[in-house]
């Protein structure tokens, strides 16, 4: 057995002198050691030593600076991931996987998964369902995680060495997106929890990641891994005691007790770590995610909502429906989706595209145990009204501090935006009936931005059961925090 302490000591000495060559360290080990054994030992110790392995096999220190903004804006699922998925499909079903019986099975699996998500049914994955899931969801889920991580990176809250727990990792969309989002000099100790047949697909997709993205797959339930319901949490030698980032990518709706699982994951989170959860933009899953956020981030728990649905009134908790989601640019249709869709039998009135899914629309929440928020902005009674009190302001003009929680929801007439301040009990919308230079910050503000609305006219919309705050030529809207 190799002397690990000697390997660590020599690596710590050489890190400040020159790139660390396993062959050189092998010469310093008492009794000798094979360079290949030294290299594998360095790989196992690299995270704690903050070392990354280079293409030439040498090791060098990971920079201390946090992850920089990568300008994440993917236009397509990268070809290497597309090829890897098609290789899986060909190995499973043959070159004509999209035709005949196998094509029919895959299309039926996609239809069934779509229905299960729509109606909130329990989702089950066999091998065919896992591959169908990958065909339909992998591209959009790959893109989504980067847009969510942007909120952490803008405040330098993502380190170049990351211990990641991916709960319900599925077929690997979030994992591959995380891999490509991070810089080449990052080192990731990645742990996936995936009990279903999707784990086999995930395992093979992770073969496409680089040498400094070190994956471990735990084929068990989240409840088992986290020690919920009286079970003993997973604490094997290769599993960290705590994680810097816990990801729930499109899985909360599939858990029996999503709030309980998220709470348990926070117990495994580093003090400065983040829970990142996202879900499809459809009403049920998006509102379900917001319910979990509100159940976990309570004044008693000390957990804060970092983004996007900021609590601008620190003593308040929202209780509106919470159907809020962000929208990014569509991706190009990947070849495997096109093949499956074009091979489908259709009647003369059937439209193509049933098996194409390149919309990047997602609800998300970032939670932190340290109280940090994306922007440290708070409302005050002296300057603005609470949305919880809007009933008493109907037909009045008031000021609100608000988070923009949608893109334009109108059909092209008066621009319409969902907003919140963390106190709202029903939905609030800003309706721009006349844009001026004094209120055009409303249109220009990004999703999640904080705006100050001065002199908005509060009206009740009985049809929608919501408040419409009219923004017109008497209203001023200022961008407080982008």
Automatic annotation (TrEMBL):
User: What InterPro entries does the record tag this protein with?
Assistant: DUF8157_C (IPR058959), DUF8157_N (IPR058470), SAM-dependent_MTases_sf (IPR029063)
Source superkingdom:
Archaea
The yes or no answer to whether the keyword Cytoplasm is present is no
- Which BP terms does GO give this entry? methylation
Q: Which UniProt keywords apply?
A: Methyltransferase, Transferase
Query: A GO molecular function for this record?
Result: methyltransferase activity
According to UniProt, the name of this protein is: Methyltransferase type 12
The segment(s) forming the DUF8157 domain are 4-55, 388-479
Tell me yes or no: is Transferase among this UniProt entry's keywords: yes
């Amino acid at each position: 057995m190799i002397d690990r302490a000697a390997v660590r000591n020599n690596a710590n000495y050489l890190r400040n002198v020159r790139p660390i060559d396993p062959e050189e360290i092998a010469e310093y080990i008492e009794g000798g050691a094979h360079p290949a054994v030294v290299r594998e030992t360095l790989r196992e110790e690299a995270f704690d030593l903050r070392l990354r392995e280079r293409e030439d096999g040498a090791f060098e220190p990971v920079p201390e600076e946090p992850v920089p903004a990568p300008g994440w804006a993917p236009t397509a699922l990268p070809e290497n991931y597309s090829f890897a998925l098609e290789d899986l499909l060909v190995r499973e079903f043959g070159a004509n996987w999209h035709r005949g019986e196998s094509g029919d099975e895959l299309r039926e699996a996609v239809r069934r998964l779509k229905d299960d998500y729509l109606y909130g049914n329990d989702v089950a994955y066999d091998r065919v369902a896992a591959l169908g899931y990958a065909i339909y969801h992998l591209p959009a889920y790959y893109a989504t995680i980067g847009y969510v991580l942007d909120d952490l990176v803008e405040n330098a809250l993502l380190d170049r060495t990351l211990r990641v727990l991916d709960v319900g990792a599925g077929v690997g969309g979030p994992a591959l997106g995380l891999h490509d989002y991070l810089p080449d000099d990052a080192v990731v100790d990645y742990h996936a929890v995936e009990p279903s047949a999707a784990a086999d697909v995930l395992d093979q997709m992770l073969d496409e990641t680089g040498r400094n993205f070190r994956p471990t797959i735990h084929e068990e339930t989240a409840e088992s891994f986290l020690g919920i319901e009286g079970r003993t949490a997973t604490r094997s030698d290769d599993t960290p005691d705590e994680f810097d980032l816990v990801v729930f990518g499109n899985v909360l709706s599939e858990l029996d007790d999503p709030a309980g699982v998220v709470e348990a994951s926070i117990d495994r989170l580093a003090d400065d770590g983040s829970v990142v959860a996202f879900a499809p933009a459809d009403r049920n899953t998006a509102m379900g995610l917001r319910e979990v956020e509100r159940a976990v981030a309570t004044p008693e728990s000390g957990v804060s909502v970092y983004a996007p649905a900021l609590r601008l009134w620190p003593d308040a908790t929202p209780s509106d429906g919470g159907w809020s989601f962000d929208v990014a640019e569509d991706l190009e249709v990947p070849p495997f989706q096109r093949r499956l869709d074009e091979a489908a039998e259709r009647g003369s009135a059937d439209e193509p595209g049933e098996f194409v899914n390149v919309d990047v629309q997602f609800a998300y929440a970032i939670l932190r145990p340290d109280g940090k928020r994306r922007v440290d902005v708070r409302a005050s009674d002296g300057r603005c009204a609470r949305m919880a009190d809007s009933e008493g302001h109907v037909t009045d003009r008031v000021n609100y501090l608000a988070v923009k929680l949608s893109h334009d929801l109108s059909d092209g007439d008066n621009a319409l935006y969902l907003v919140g301040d963390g106190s709202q009990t029903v939905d609030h919308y800003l309706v721009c009936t006349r844009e001026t230079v004094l209120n055009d910050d409303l249109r220009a503000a990004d999703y999640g931005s904080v705006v100050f609305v001065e002199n908005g006219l509060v009206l009740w919309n009985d049809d929608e059961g919501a408040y419409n705050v009219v923004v017109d030529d008497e209203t001023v809207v200022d961008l407080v925090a982008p």
